[in-house]
Design goal:
This protein has five helices and two strands; from the N terminus they run ααααββα. It has a two-stranded antiparallel sheet with strand order 1-2. 6% of the residues are buried. A hairpin with a 4-residue loop joins strand 1 and strand 2. The protein is mainly alpha-helical. It is elongated. It has a domain of 57 residues.
């Protein structure tokens, strides 16, 4: 994804100017105090995240990470697990020793979908916060 366009920087700075007086400064501080524990982002972070479509937070900078998180990679295939004596044995792929999957053959411990549906993938890759 492209970096944050610099042409939006004056707009963001202009939005911060009204907070120079006392009551607005107190209101912005109160909004930050409420927003940071609830969302992990300050109000300006919410604005930048909405514009860029990425997860951006000042908390990430405090932890020594980049301001905006990289997009999450697609999840890998689920492991194939079978029952064993007192535990489950799991493999990255179905072991060939089990033969082809049969309706009556050895089944996995959890039988379910092994990949995301197109709707789930679209939701996973949607821009934050899903408004676009």
């Amino acid at each position: 994804m492209a970096p944050f366009p610099r042409r939006f920087l004056p707009l963001l700075l202009a939005l911060a100017l009204p907070a120079c007086d006392g009551p607005s400064l107190v209101g912005l501080g109160a909004a930050t105090v409420v927003s940071l524990p609830l969302t992990g982002r300050a109000p300006p972070d919410l604005l930048v995240s909405a514009v860029t479509g990425r997860d951006c937070s000042i908390v990430r900078l405090d932890r020594g990470m980049s301001y905006c998180a990289a997009p999450a990679p697609a999840p890998g295939n689920a492991p194939y697990c079978t029952r064993s004596l007192g535990q489950a044995d799991c493999w990255v792929t179905r072991p060939p020793m089990l033969g082809p999957p049969l309706s009556t053959g050895p089944r996995g411990v959890v039988d379910g979908p092994t990949s995301l549906t197109p709707a789930q993938e679209a939701d996973r890759a949607a821009r934050w916060p899903g408004l676009f």
